[in-house]
Amino acid sequence: MKRKDIIEFEVDKMEFGGTTVSMLGNKEIHMKGGISGQKVKAAVKKARSKKAEVKMLEILEKSPIETANPCKHFGICGGCTILSVPYEKQLEIKERQVMDLFLNQDIFGFQFLGIEGSPQDRLYRNKMEYTFGDEMKDGPLTLGLHKKGRHIDILTVDGCYLVDQDFIKVLTSTVEYFDEKKLPYYRCMSHKGYLRNLVVRKGINTNELMVNIVTSSQEDFDMTEYKEMLLNLETQAEIVSILHTINDGLADAVQCDELRVLHGRDYINEELLGLKFTISPFSFFQTNTKGAEKLYSIARDFVGDHENKVVFDLYSGTGTIGQVMAGAAKKVYGIELIEEAVVAANNNAKLNGLTNCEFVAGDVAKTVKNFKVKPDLIIVDPPRPGVHKDAIRDISGFGAKEIVYISCNPKTLVLDLVEFKKYGYEVEKVKCMDMFPNTPHVETIVKLKKVN
């Protein structure tokens, strides 16, 4: 087996993160994508004596476990890679993958509470970020998601199962409107063009909708007619915010050089476990609202009795989990790197009448050691790379009896748990929460206890 060879094989094992491992002869085949039981054709990217990395070219035969009806975009869109697998089976797969990661790091002896399914496995997303482009060179304007394995081709996902009809109406009416105007879409290679992105956010519990059209400054186009078109749509939710973001950044990411309010306000409201939150166009908020309520309820159960305790909320974002804990706590201190999120966290605390919450901006690895107060309980909810080793050392140095770790990446979670063990923390219990049905991702909540 050598580079560029074309091979065919049956997918054996799905690993966390959307990769698979299969055996072909005496070689271990690693591939991005795939479902156990599929027969596939793939091209060899790298080959060694006992291991090869390959790229899937074609699915020759479906897996026996693919018995669910996927959307019309499945297999073309790069989004829901396991939508064809029934939801209960998806949960079994994710649970096994997480447990394998724990076992691979020799983490034993804890209470495993299984996996909690999302309240909705479809129509669950409260935010979508769409991109303008075309599906083929010089084709008609499209607006949606990248095709699977393609950096340029954009598919208009008007049959997406992850969002409700309000998202679909805004998406389709927007692409039709701008196609008629013959405005050029922004090309990342040449940095020429006008139309860049459409971001839609919805308050699931408040029924408020935000539409944010993102363009470059290369055209002087009046958005008044577009705004009126949106307001005349028969959406279930009330459109309370229509925004126009100017983005001249070179990166293929939504950023703001200028924000123009075309209608209403520059935020929507959302409610979570009896608390109120304002969500700006660029602030982080869990994309599965009903799932987030379950996630934070699990974390609160793991925390248990925290009456009159001092709580550290590290990587606090907009302060959601800290405020969920604040009702009984003596004091909640939050640390978050992104200053805008810290401002939002403090504003949300005021909105909820929580006077015992204080959120500060800073890098957790550098800021936490400057805190003079000793926490009774520490909650960490880091980004995908996990917790820096220096931060683990300083967090452990406080000697808190309990740490609750909320992870969006069990691969880095288990490595961090090994580090925490060096400072006398053992895993007491673990539970998974599926926030992202039909995708390879899952959240994991861990309770650590100080044993020496």
From TrEMBL:
One of its GO terms (biological process) is methylation. S-adenosyl-L-methionine binds at residues 286, 315, 336, 381. The active site is at residue 408. The keyword Methyltransferase applies. Keywords: Methyltransferase, S-adenosyl-L-methionine, Transferase. InterPro entries: MeTrfase_TrmA_AS, NA-bd_OB-fold, SAM-dependent_MTases_sf, U5_MeTrfase_fam. The keyword Transferase applies. CDD domains: AdoMet_MTases (cd02440). GO terms for molecular function: methyltransferase activity. Its EC number is 2.1.1.190. Pfam families: tRNA_U5-meth_tr. Gene3D superfamilies: 2.40.50.1070, Nucleic acid-binding proteins, Vaccinia Virus protein VP39. NCBIfam families: rumA. Belongs to the class I-like SAM-binding methyltransferase superfamily. RNA M5U methyltransferase family. This is 23S rRNA (Uracil(1939)-C(5))-methyltransferase RlmD. The lineage of its organism: Bacteria, Bacillati, Bacillota, Clostridia, Peptostreptococcales.
